[in-house]
Records
---
Amino acid sequence: MEGVSKRYPGTLAVDNVDFEARVGEVHALMGENGAGKSTLMKILAGSFDDYTGRIFIGGSQREANLHSPAIAKENGIGMIYQELSLARPISIAENLLVGRLPVRYGFLLDKRAMIAEAKRCLERVGLDIDPMTTLEEISQHEAQLVEIAKVLGNMPCILVMDEPTSALSREEVDRLFEIIQQLKRAGLTIIYISHHLSEVFRIADRVTVLRDGRKIATKDISEVTPVDVVQMMVGKRIDEFYSKRKAVIGEPVLKVRNLTRRGFFHNVSFHASRGEILGIAGLSGAGRTELARSMCGLDPLDDGDVELGGDFVPPESYQESVRRGLFYLSEDRKSDGLFLRLPVQQNLVSVLIPWNTTLGIYSSRNDARVARDMIRQLEIVTASALTDAGTLSGGNQQKVLLGKWLAGRPRVLVLDEPTRGVDVSAKMKIHDAVMEVADQGNTVILISSDLPELVGLSDRVVVMRNGHLIGEMRKEQLSEESVLLAANGQMERANA
Amino acid sequence: MLKRMRLGALYEILGIYLIALLLVAIGRFVSPQFLTNENFLNILNGVVLLGMAAAGMAFVTYSGNMADLSFPSIMAFSGIITVAALPLGLIPALAIGVLAGMAIGAMNGIVVGALKANPILWTLAVSFFMEGFMRFTWSNNQVYPDTAPGTSGAAFIQLFRVSAGPVPLTVLVMIGMFIAGHFVMTRTRFGIETKLVGSSRETARTSGINVRRVILLDFLVAALAASTAGIFLASMNKLGVFYLGLGYDFKAVTAVVIGGMMLSGGRGHLFGVLGGVLVIGLMSNIMDFLGVTSFRQNIVTGGVFILVVGLHQYLLRKRGKDYA
């Protein structure tokens, strides 16, 4: 790839990147969220018809115009995304051969040929299971191997894997790596996207680091250390962005003891105090969202208890949590954060319903004022308070989502990715509001994959890994490097 | 652009009454007897039970659960039970009949709310089960009240027939139900929460709303309305039997949808639904004047339903509300 760029409205997601992967190598692609890894790979997969720059494949001097997924496939590019593209209720064989099912007499499904072909596909990834099993009956790991087998069925010469291990156990990761080694020996080029340093250092031959859409460097893995890679990812940025807030931290208000939900998180204990912004760091799949949802009563808990201001919060009773001022801001505003089809005003007052009700009768007297104040405070750009929330831009939708919870006057506000996919100015406004909530003596718990945000806002950070709380970092220990190392399980180096 | 948006909003509120006026004009054109007080009462009498049912159905639609197809069985069941309980006196019989219907509503509300069953399939199954149950229990027979003068049975069959001046009791009850329903939908916590649940069930849950309770209440309100309609229907026919109420499921949904309530939930209002009921009554009355048989009238009602649902979908797309 030479001088490749891709512009989204408002941002240059990939900026003039040269990228080269050799035959028979595992090439890791690393960078923070928003660094442009996924966009770069989507260009390769033919997802965009408006990228600029030139791409050459397989030593050919002819430029490959990867303007559609079909063309990318013809050029031998296979993609394995985080979310599997398999249909669950049908058999492995049908999933593998979708689009090229063997037929007899032009229309009858040739079942025997299908099973035989599916078996051959599965052998290539070392899976020995009956191809007529449905996807529902096999494990996540096996499903992933089926996905790989499916992509290999198209005879790719380049295989892109985006965070392939996020849902796998340690043994399963080992098996996946064996298969990657086999594919490499067979002459495939594998591009491996991951946040997990340990995996990259185990499997990759070379590593390319992206930052803010640009390529920082491509290095042989033997030349670099994990700390070098982290420094390349983070860069030497001085963030004026985060004003140095002087946190006034009071007595502990939220105490969480031995929280366990089997399969998601285990024995998690921590506390958070008045006036404090407590960050929760971790890689995707570490169990942060699951912990937050269960802690607030949205999802079940197997064990442990949550104490808010001296009282126990009943499990699995989110209404009760909301009544007591323990709020959870959803990471996905579209599916369960906002009422997209209802006006901004209705969204902003939706948490206040119990407080505005007397004897079952709802008083809408304050609705307009609450909405007006919140629109002003958060500088929400909307035609009017009665515009449907779904018509707003992403950043303004996110402000409405935050405003809805601010209007409810939180005691403990749990924010899950509060600035995902929003522009810089909306982000700053949201950060200001979050700091203000803490300054008023409330508690904020912040889950964010945006490292500068997590480091810039948090007064203290607890680190989760594989469902366990593995450590805690004080304000003065916080830096993007240290948090990233800690999230990768290198606590000692992080605190060094 | 802005002007068109306003027109769209105006249509949502007044559109159905404009259509009703248009139908009145057509009716005047079809027959000179159309514009008489007597015919107007005829029209009202023809749709008054449908109106009661639609007022309840609207709550289910508003909550995003599309329709309660167990309406016919709720109506028949509460009718039969009321008639069977008449020896206990009129008021106890009415209370028992309404409670019987609401028991079905409670079951629907729990299964759809707590177990997240598909409302259409579940209520369809309940309807099927209840029909079989009633046929079995009463051996396919009709249940008659004792209508000797002075008995509670005699009073019961008068329910459908008494008037306050020129206005029948049924019409008063229907209008009362719409006014009360409108108040509940727009002014109570339960009504607001129904709107939120109807707009997005998941978001309502993560906003701290007890979604299960709201949906249970919606099905209870619907069953209360259906039972009331069913009891008047039994009074009208002077008997209770498993097939009374047939067709009220679909006709009620038609009135709700014509009245501007979106099947996807959270949008619309009860006075639109009342307009939808009137439009159905007017259409049917005009077709009566034209001598259209009732089977052919069904074709027209079904056709209108298809048209309106198609139009809704088209308008939604046109406004670029694919986020909805």
---
Amino acid sequence: MKLMRKIFSADKNVSYGRTIPGGIRPRAHKITSLRSRVMATPIPPVLIIPLNQQQGKASRPCVKAGDRVLKYQKIAEAADDSSLNIHAPSSGVVSMIQNHTTININAANQLCIFIETDGIDEEVPIPDTLDWRGMTSEQLLPVISNAGICGMGGAGFPLSKKIDSAIIPDIHTLIINAVECEPFITADQALIREHADEVIQGAQILQHAINAKRCLLAIESDKTDAIEALSNYADRDSIKLLLLDNKYPAGGERQLIQAATGKELPAGHLPAEAGIYVQNAGTVFSIYKAVVENKPCISRVTTLTGEALQTPKNFNALVGTQVSWLFDLCGIDNKTHSKSVAGGSLMGIELMDNSAPISQSTNCLIAGSLSEFPDIMPEQACIRCGYCANACPSGLLPQQLLAYSRCEEDELLAQQGLFDCIECGACSYVCPSSIPLVQYYRSSKERIISARQKKETSQAWQNRFQYHQYRIKKLKDEALSRTSAKPVIDKQQSADDPFSKEQAALEVAAAVARVKAKKGNVIASSAATDGSQSDGEPTA
Amino acid sequence: MITSSPFQHGKQTVGDIMSLVIIACIPGICISTWHFGYGLILNILLATSSALAFEAACLLMRHRSLLALKDNSALLTAVLLAISIPPGSPWWLVISGSFVAIVMVKHIYGGLGQNPFNPAMVAYVFLLLSFPLDMTSWHLPIALENLTGGSAETDINLASLSPLSWQRLKLSVLAALPFLSTFYENPQSAIGMIDGMAMATPLIEYKMAGNSAILASRDAGQDIFSRQSGTGWELTNLSYLLGGLFLLYKRIISWHIPFSIIATLGVISFLFYAPNSSTVFGTPYLHLLGSATMIGAFFIATDPVSAATGNNAKIVYGIIIGLSIYSIRVWGSYLDSVALAVLFGNFCAPLLDHYFRPRVYGHGKQGNSGSTLRKPLLSLGDKIES
Amino acid sequence: MYPLIETIYVQAAIACFAIFLLLQIMFFLRKYWIHSLEKQYSIVDRINALLPQTQCGRCGYAGCRPYAKAMSLGEQVNKCPPGGESTIVNLSLMLNEHKKTLDPAHGEFLQAAVAVIREEECIGCTKCIQACPVDAILGGTKLMHTVIESECTACDLCIEPCPVDCIDLIQLPPLKPLWQSPGTAERGLSGRSFVGGGSL
């Protein structure tokens, strides 16, 4: 069938990807949110912008409470190349900079800038559009890094750092990831079917920036509306469409590389080292906006879906909008609402607090009911049926990993390939015994990583201790050799010598007396203590 | 602590899988009953009821919830055991078999998913070694019966009776529960009647023939579905094959184990087939369809708990089982060698699992890192990472 | 007696099986051969690798390695507070001892901590620098002293010598893991040698 399609397809710019090993075909739940167009949200009353929206360091705020900020104004500076420049999504007054819960799982309670919007949406003056075709990568990079874009597929890696590390190796293939294989998420599909032109231009900009020889846009073959939009606008010579089979997790970076090129990315290596660069379609759209329209990244297309919502749809939501406000916008039915999930149903994060704001990498919010997310069935014994091994896209044996996770056999876990697991959830999906496999693997990975860190630290301490002993021994040896070689010092001279030992002892005693007098003899002297700690105020 | 993704789950449970396997056995059971009578049904009834009782008792003793009975695993073990032992076996045979299978092989090792050996097959071997005479008496298809003895109650010529008749049912119940013979006027002849119905498995008889009974009856112009033609065993096997293909279609089992067992058996029996030698090897057809091979390949060897994991390991597992089936049948003293062969495969399964792992993405021949040599299974104490 | 053995098939099969067995034995022995090429670590080094290397001396020995050496000669395994429960378990597994609770004479299990010098009160006497076993304090005579946070093992040895008592031991917040293993969550075990069985 595929061969026939290949032979008889009239469009030379459309190719078909290989199928990935393993994988599952879950129920997609995508139809309800695709019924309407992408809508811009009204301006929410409060915007809570997290300072750490991605993997990396938190940004440093450059405004303080009480400042009035305009739309697109920079409110936080990047601390280093792993953090982002953050811009105000709307005009208003900075009310406070405080801790708040966020969706970032590594920094759940972090510092956020609170902006009370005034509804005017006044913008800073935007410079003219740039002619990006005439610019080199070195000139494009500051523009992109100033715009504060991070990967929008869910992982959230800072874009400028990724492009920077990709300029040096020879990139031959740029793959735009519009696969969106996870159930419930339709953000990229909705974006592409309405803004295909901009997405393609953004891809061209990116291709120019990293000097890639060819550009592929990977999309699932059943997203016919998006494919049609792309075919109408696609610049024939620059971008090839790559249609993939509708399998989860074909959109994962490593699986996508395998489907597109047929080769596997070697373990522990980045795609850039293999000459491939993968970027999400939403990020590419932001690149277009940043370079062509000169607007920094302040919003993203987010899917609001779930049975508890009256009108599920895709919104062009501002970064910092609260999840509860978005749910109310869609008309949430609190009686049927049982679970909130940020992300898709297979790799998303459960939200305990709906007041958290969305960040740049939030692609979907699900207000699920009990029928969509039924109660977790109790875990039964593993019957070693092997369905998980059939579903695993990385070629692992999840039932062995489960057995070793339970026994905490760290060496065997590493041997079986625990760190090659992409935590896609396919194994857990098919398990007939309802075993929460991904949770086992995540906790085992955490445990192993912290044990390795502890070991590294103790090794470092041991090395310092050994050096300390060596240094003391060396000093002793030198002292011995000195005392045997030097003549006797004149004792008279030592009293006047400011650096002599006796002088030092005198000064120490004087200082001790001073401090004691100040503290009123509260201090326990070293002779009296037996290991008890001081009761002074700790300094930070 | 938050629960981890995924929040969406497939709908298939362990109970669904086990019940589908039982459903796949039904064609075979029907054809077998039609040929050999009600003994098989009685076997199944006895085995399932005793298995469920033992399972419930074990779960209570292990302080587990009785909801675990919903996973139908005891039911499946009982059905497979009942199919393997001769139909119309005495009740104490069936019940002790299910005791060994459920209590001694499954629960003592830790319950569902923890048994290293196939429970039904260990029970079968236990019965084979403990009660050899009862285990090697199979009911013949009606064409080859050689009944002797009679009494006032058995005046009718039994050979002309269909296996599904009322008298046959009475005889099957008598075979299963021999203490009921006290109700007969002449208990001796009743027992003698039952003994006369039995003989060793058809494998010995057909060893000499070496031909397909189905083809022979077709050549003779007989209807292959009639009971006179002696095609019972082959039709039974074909219906189990049908059930196995149904399981493959439903993706309950993967094709690796059945395919490798059947292929190995076919190739080996073809290689060794020597119609004129003193030792009778038997045709490939005989080995595949004349005995319990199909049940073994599709239902017994594919038991997920005791089989190898990983597709390559499964193929080697199937090869080992196929070779063992053949060797034990031809050169060993047990004709029904599937049970012993599967147990031998279970012995080898952990080693196969270790050495035949699937290749992880990014390691091996296409990736730069990782070697194809496996590290040894056990480490020598603690090692210092240099 | 066995005419079948004379057939070529059976001979070939037996030969294959013999080669297979031989390969298995070679693979098994290879593991020992590899170990002989690696550097042989003494038992003291292997015990030392299990200790946390804080060099605090709470066990009564001057550092972790002397304690490891003592344990190899029969010393009790339950004298290391900074190591926590896991160190006692690992040591008892390695030395084939019964697992014991921590000897109360040597302290209690501690949270991760770090020493901090209150700089306003420091007089620059270098006593703490001399006491620190891992040289984690930076400073000189009559110059400001400060603790390098990443190198401090919280061994407590600098607290005593300070004549003005300006060093505090600050507890670091405990690292709560993000994901709890489902198996241990139900059964309340700390892990270790638990094999399977469902919750049902």
---
Amino acid sequence: MKNPSSKRAKKTALSLLVLLLLWALVVVLSSTIGPADISFGQCISVLCSRMPWVSAENVPEVHETIIFRVRLPRILMASLVGASLAVAGAVFQGLLRNPLAEPYILGVSSGAAVGATVAMVVGLATVAGGFGFVFVPALAFLGALVAMVAAYQLAKIGRTVPVHTLILAGVVVNAFFSAVVMFIVSRAGPQLHGIMFWLMGNLEPVAGTAMLARFVVPLVVVGFILIALYCRDLNVLAFGEESAVQLGMNAGAVKRVLFVSASLITGVVVAMSGMIGFVGLVVPHSVRMIVGADHRSLIPTAAIAGASFLIVADTVARVASVPVGAVTALIGCPFFAYLLRTRKRVMNV
Amino acid sequence: MTDAILKVVGILGDFFVRSPTRFAPGTARCLTAFLVLAACFGCDRSGDDRTSVEAPRIVVTDDTGYRIELREAPARVVSIAPNVTEIMFAIGADKKLVGVTDICDFPPEATQKPKIGNFVNPDLEKIVAREPDLVIGSGTFHPVLGRLRDLGVSVLSFNPTTIDELLVMIEKMGVVMECEAPARELTTSLTTEIESVRSDLPTGDRVKVFVEIWHDPLMTAGAGSFVNDLVETAGGDNIAASIRNHYFEISQEHVLDANPDIILAAYMEKDVSAREMILNRETWRTVSAVASGRVYDDIDPDLLLRPSVRAVHTVKELAERFYPERFGEQSK
């Protein structure tokens, strides 16, 4: 006899498998595309040269460097950031019970940008040897948290967060924190010219892969694990706080943990790659159509789909030499408009 | 390390498998997550020990405090700034240049070199594809430089904001390229040139100069910009020198109030001349430079803004415009 839970698990497992294969395919394809003059066949042979059962035959060293140390780190960075933003979006949507919640739209990304900019301008990044670098994601996390709380407090009416107040709150929070960033950058002088590029979204791991491994990946992983552990609670919360309380859940505490975790991963990835919008909107909604609204399925699938989505967007960005934030916005804004129109009818906003 | 991972996986498994209905205590779950954090921070302790076998022959520290040590002169160099390209040619190291930016247009031979993207946003992949031993940048901070160092490429970044700093940059590049003699010769002749201009300058009042970097929005250059030092060296008084920033927006009010004797337009417009445009500004009629017609747009902006050898020659050009009574006669 089949119960609905195992059916869901099966469907999720299948979706995860398909998405993982898709991600692998996207990684391989993306690593064959770039401005350097390396043909598709050469790329594949470089990629295969690292496999144990294939003999490496006269692969130029520079091709190896370009693919393994220039393209792949950036692709992995895109995976990490895409997964983080998609998961953060899904969590915000569940928590606020609002389809338009997303780190960028809520202003959480701008808050994180303020934190990271302050850390860079003040020079915290370079103090205390290599470990001072941890201040950049740490302050970005703080900024994200402040923005999150501000947007939430502004938007909520009683215990609900209606679509229109959320959007308005996001606009205000975004405008304020963006203005703060502009102010800091204009005062900072020439050495921070790069900040403007970073703000528009840049997935080049400029901090260095060692820094990524040491500070960024652990923090993001912690956020992911916390969220994974609270997926079930998120399901209950999505039905409304009353039902959660009736089930004996400490709704306030659970919400706090989830808000903090989602702000953590948003803050950390914004500190690394700047403000990349709409990933947290496009990906969770698309995935929800396939695996349904159960967060135990939604969160992991959104993570993998988000990774693939941002790799594709960044490949376009690399080829066209535009900031990746522009690419995701070009895809995301029409999607946002579509959601706004359809939900308007359903939710009677 | 593996023990820690196994333990974490075990705890995670417990949560998912054992308690399908009950909500696990929050503190325990937070603990799990931070255990992972601790495990991750614990790993990655691979310290690299750099015991060089041979003593490096070439040691140079750039303007960002970064030090490179080379055992031999680099054979393949990529320039990601037009002034670096110009200096490479000027000290006779151009044969080693294997990549330049899209805007490296001087000397004309420079345009024949392979391109690695534009100056503002050079392409990491194209740079790496040129297989450089050394990459030299100048001016704005490039995130790309950090990535190149990460890849094991030697990188130097110069940011000269005065003629003196430029001379130091030229000499350092001479050291790196093993073109010390021509570099020294060049800096000596440039120093002589500057000194001769300086000795001819009047000792009394200096002319007040407004450097117009762009017209919409109105932008100028303050202390901390290279053009500021050119103007000051040529005996001018930059009206924006009190502002310790490089290039920035300035209000018209400020210019009208300072009443400059000379306006230098450091840009070119396609259809109208910058000079005509400035002379025709209604509100600027009272400005002494406009009233007397001492508005100049005839110096190539590259010669004012690009900290390279040619810019040093510009000092004389500027002095001729600032003090025609002293330098005009001399040139005849």
---
Amino acid sequence: MWEALNSSQESVWREVQDNIRRAERWGELCLRPPRVEVGITPKEVVYRENKASLYHYRGEAHEVKPIPVLIVYALINRLYILDLIPGRSFVQHLLSNGLDVYAVDWGTPGDEDRSIPLDYYIEGYLDRMVKKVMALSGARQISLFGYCMGGTLAAIHAALHPERVRNLVLLTTPINFEEAGYLARAVDKEYFPLDALVDALGNIPPWFMQAGFKTLNPLGDVAKVYNFCKNMLDESFVENFFAMEKWVNDNVPFPGEAYRKFIRELYQENLLYQGKFTVDGQRVDLKRINGAHLSVVASEDTIVPPKAALCMKELISSQDNQAVLLPGGHVGVIVGGRALKTTWPRITEWLLERSE
Amino acid sequence: MITWMELSDQYFQWWQDAASSYVDWFKDQPVLLKAWGAFLDQSLQMKRITDQALDEFWRAVRLACREEITRLHERLNVLESHLVELKERDWAEEVDKRIAGKVVAPEDLKPLRKTLDAMEKQIAEASAGAGVREGIASLEARLGELLGELEEIKEIVHRYSSYLDAQPAISKVARRRGPGRGLQMRPSKKLFSFRRGRR
């Protein structure tokens, strides 16, 4: 009885001491938040058009595979999201395994970019960047790696030019937008004033999209703060936390006309899944994709629920065709602690086997 | 024995599970989505009216409004894209040919190197011939034309950028057109509709 009381007393005392330390640390972090340096893998711009740039990463591997990998991000994401911090850089991981890595940076659109249609992003910028990668690497085909909306753009490009794409890797990529969960319901034709939004705002500001993502899990922020308070004495946790926060809150505006087409024809009408989506007057038939394909889907993803992404496997005609469901959310599946042991090796091994 | 931290974890988890089911139910209500849509629509209409009034004000004081400057920037973007297309045409065509199988990839060039060397010798021998000289002259003329075109476009870009930098210049044009009329630009939906490979 006395022992139990004594141990309980000790536990309370320890907790009080920890909480005092936490309060001190909180004050320190508020006064001097740590500076997180992201995207530090050496790279150079090899092509630039307006605000879009194509980067070539410099790796240190002795032997580089002949088939280059081109990473395509969503129009609202920054270049560094897969090259976060040392130890959490997927790009660095690909390079160290001997892959030749390029990445598309869409840049930050200004008011003058509001009229650039989605078609031009695919058949203008992306088309030229793919060609540039082929010209620089001397390869006849490349590997396209798309993340989230970048995956949708990559899949459309691969369907329009299947002869260029040897491998297509889609990470949490929405294809069947009818299954896109709450986001699809929130932009339903009946409620969502899409035209008024684009006409009035031009480019869709990041705060507007952030608000949409926050609505998916309104209590997520409370849980985040709770976890932060609990683990704030752990230096590596704090570093990762700030890096992730930088990523999640550092979006760029969505170009207006591209947004209009993306929401109307993909989210509201689901034309890509039905095979009726057109780019520059050409119908996008996903069946034309015949290269190797790997879809990586996150089991706890609320932005792109598994059902919206897994269907890609059924829509294409590739012989080498895989879709895998891995643990994690939309972001965690590629930069979370588990990703280093699950997603990264899975994707890298798959690419290495097919990049000879 | 359970620690305070474990206890608080358990309590937090219970609270989160209980609250999230209510929040999920609430946020999915069509009434809420409809109300949100209507509110957003009204706010956007207000913004549009305010923007139009501001534009009118700038025009009234004979300055270019934001819309007009944006349109000019858009045109510059299109010109820049055309320039890039011209500048990068060589490799783009080379890649097109490579994809179509008309030109092989560099890794496949080794077996052809001997043939190329032999052809080089033949060209050197034939260079004294009149036909080859004419061919070279026509190629040089075409190259000159292309360079001329490039200079023309550079000139246009240069002209527009200085025009944008100088705000008084914009207001001067607006003044010349009379009150209430700024630089009238057409809607730019078709600005980016040019296809690849077209000049």
